[in-house]
Each structure stands twice: as structure tokens, then as C-alpha cells.
Queue: 2 jobs
Job 1
Amino acid sequence: MTDTNSAAATGKLPAAPRALRATASALVSLALTFIGLTAITFVIGRVMPADPVLAVVGDRASEEAYQRVFLEMGLDRPIWEQYLTYLGQILTGDFGTSIMTTRPVTEDILRFFPATLELATLATLIGCVIGIPLGVWAAVNQGRWIDHCARVLGLAGYSAPVFWLGMLGLLIFYGNLGWVAGPGRIDIYYDGLVEDPTGVILFDAAWHGEWEIFWNAFSHLILPAGVLGLYALAYIARMTRSFMLDQLGQEYVLAARIKGASEFSVIWRHAFRNVLVQLITIIGLTYASLLEGSVLTETVFAWPGIGQYITTSLFNADMNAVLGGTVVVGICFVGINMLSDLLYRFADPRART
């Protein structure tokens, strides 16, 4: 019997076919998720009470002008046919033209999305750098003052409204103390002084050595990122504490202590390594939620991000912009989840098989 037949008989496949099968399964899952995301988003956009034709022609347009635009937009066709046409367009990167900005939606997304990416990335870093050690420390000192402080901080970060924290932060740190810059992404006299091929001002300014612009942009960024970071910190610290409490009660931790392992080794080399696998998923979900859920923060701080762009477009019945922005955010959410799954496999050797 050949090796292939033996593998088939035992129900096991060689590594290469197994990897190909896993890759094909992931691609099919991604394609189905993308189709489902675009279909749901498109249908919701069509059944909303906002009339996209009126957004184009205005309230005072004649019936003839209304009907002409109605036909040009293809709204007379069945909704499934409209969706297939829309799907074909977005597969080529064409989300249509924004009524609000009169520019292609793709161009608007490339302009606004880097601001949200910059904000969510720094907020997630704040949440990880502070939240993970705080959660570990709280679990190790369960029932002590640090544990109570961590739980109160987590409750406050989860319960306090984002818009209230944002206005309070502006009042204290910008209005009274003057420690940070105010709303907006950069002072107006620095706007356009540095080339921004990536759209991420901190990276572009550092790349060109424009450190004055870098620190000005950072001064604008730190307060909204801190507000979002408090939410990320609360969630990550709470989940880290929960995971660590579960691991510290396992028998292998007791065995490591009996063998004379140091407390640092027990906590970080044994317990935390098992927690890390779960934390990867938590961090990925947190990052994705900040990318899609920072609308209030962007509104309070006048931050020109994708959340504010989608919200403003929705109020103006600019459905091309709303659908385009929503699809892009959804794709990012799916992509981050897939990346988390990949990192999970690297962190846990058992998941590779």
C-alpha cells in the first residue's frame, strides 16, 4: 500500500494537502463573508427611508428630473440585479461618487480612513501596554487593593459615556491645563507642509524628519486616543484578569511552585503563555471594534476619520459614501479576525494540527 493510500486509510493527510485544504477553506469562508456583508449592507441601504434621488436632484426638482435620475441610478431594476451591478463595481474598487464631496468614494475613503487607523492603533497600544500588566497584577493580587482598583477602573472605562469623557478631557487638559492641543488632527498652519503618501501624519512626518509637525500631530492625537484607550484598557484588563485567575488555579502552576520556580517564571513563563493565546483574539476584537466604533470620539474631537465621514454622509442621504465606508470597515473587521486566527495558530502549536 502506498503512503497516500495509507494516509487515506488512517484518515490523515500529508502536511501539504492539509495546508492547501485549510487555505481553500479560508478563502471560501472569506468570499462568503464578503458576499454576505455586501448584500446585507446593500439591502439596508436600499430599504432606509432616505431617498438617494432627492439627495441628488434636491427637493425642488421637477418630476421629469426626478424620474431621469431614478432611471440613471438603476433604481427601477429588481434589487437583486442592482446588488449584482453594485458587487461588480466594488470588486473593481468603484464605490461610486459621493454626493456630499463630489469625489469618488474610494478617494474619500483613502483620505479619511488613515485618520481612524491612526487613532484606533494608538488606543489599542494604550490598552495593551497598560491593560495587560494591570490585569495580570490584579489576578496575582486577587482581593487586594490593586485588584479592587483594576476592577473599578474597568467598570469606569466600560460605563462612562465616550462623549462625556471626551468633553471632560478637553475641558481639563486642553482648556484649563493646556497640556494637549485641541480638536482636529493638526494645527491649520501645519496642514499640507509635509507629503502624506500613507495618510498617517505621525508616520509621514517622522519619515520626512519633520519633528515639529510630528509632535503637533501627536499632541492632537493623544487625548482622543487616550479616551478610546481607556475603553480598550478596561476590556483588556478585565479579560486578562479573568484568564489569569483561571490559569493560576491550574495544577501545573502549583507543580511549578513546588519545584522551586520563581514567582516571575510561574506568572509570565507558565500562566501568561497560556493566557496569550486567548488574549490575541481579545486584542483583535478590540482593535476591530475601535476601527468601526469611534464615531462619537471623532465627532467630539472633530477628528476627520471614517466614522465621522459615514455619519455625515448618512445625514445627507449620501448612500454611496455610507455603503462604501461600511463595506470597507466590515472588510477590515473580517481581515483582523483572520489575522488573529493566524497569530493564534503561531502562538499555540496545538492549533496547527
Job 2
Amino acid sequence: MTKTEQVTAARRKGSQTRAEIQEAALSLFTERGYDATSMREIAEQLGITKAALYYHFDSKEAIILSLFQEHLGALDAILDWAADRPHTPELSSELLGRWLALSATRGLRTMRFAAANHTALRTALPSGQGGVLERIDRAAQLILGPGTPLQDRLRVRLALLSVHNTVLAAQGTEAADADILTTAMQAARLLIGDLFPAPELPDSEESAQAPELPGTAGG
């Protein structure tokens, strides 16, 4: 193996470890609570040393910040993709479908954490930075175009929030991820009505994998 190949392999391994830390921390924060989970317990969950954990993240706040920054970055990629294309009913349908597909993967787990840890989330995330609501506003504009009646704008914004709202509604129930996703997708379809065609949405097996945005490879 050449030196370049060794560096590439090391980076890939480091990226994989970072993702595993994020997943383990998110599960522990959601199950036990953010304040009740320590960095030591995250390391033990993964079977790594605290030194290895601190190499990637210096605090619990850093883990949460990285999760939300990555989620917002993925939303921005979807919105930038749509902004470069002419506005059509088909584009509106695909944009909503991509947004919901993203919410069905890492977004769903992040929303479950957020619903259970409001105070910790406010502490960990810096103020004054654009968040999900700003992305929802931009997405609604790209989906509907200018001069759309207020009621239609609200319907689309609610459709974009369907997974988030269903996570909140499911608190205190026995709803599993599949139940939340099925209900959220049904709600999104009902909300858009005849505004544009219903989006093609991922099935449960597809949504278990982090999707590469379809069509980005070839434009």
C-alpha cells in the first residue's frame, strides 16, 4: 500500500469512527437523557478509550453540534440542487420527496433526540445561526414559487414539518420509527393535496440507509 493509500484509508477509518460515535451518543442521549449520559459511557458503549473519543469530539456539546450541522448541510444541498432547476410541478414533488427522505434517516433520530432534550439542545447549539425554520421557508418558496396564497404556503410548510410533528405527537406512545414515518408520509400527501403530484417516497428498507441525493451524480 502506498503512502497516499495509507492516508486515504486512515481518513476513511477516522470518518467511520466519528459517525459511530455520533450514532452511539445520539442513542444514549435519547434513551437516558443528555445530562445523564457521560463521555465515559459513550466510549464504553463503543468499546473505545476516552482518549480515542476525545480525539474526535472534545465534549457532548461538540457531538450534538456536529449532528445538527451535518443535517443542516444536507438540507442545504437539497435546496441548492432545486434552486438550479426551473420551477415545475415535478420539481416541487421531487424536492419534497428528497426533504422527507432525508428526514426519514438521520433526521428522524435527531428529531427524537431534540423532542426529548429541549434544554440541552438550546445550550449546545449557538444562537444567531440559521436553523431548520429558515430552510423550511426557502424550501416552501422553491416548491411553490412567488405569489402563492398564504394557505398553500402553510400547507407546504406543514408537509415539510410532517416528520418533526409526528415525532412530537408520538411522544408517550408505543410508536416505532416505522409508525412515525408511515404516518408522516400520509400526512404530507394529504397536506399537499392537488398542489402538485405526490412525491415518490422511500420504503422502510430504503429509508434505513442514508440516501445519496438522486440525480446529483449526473446533474
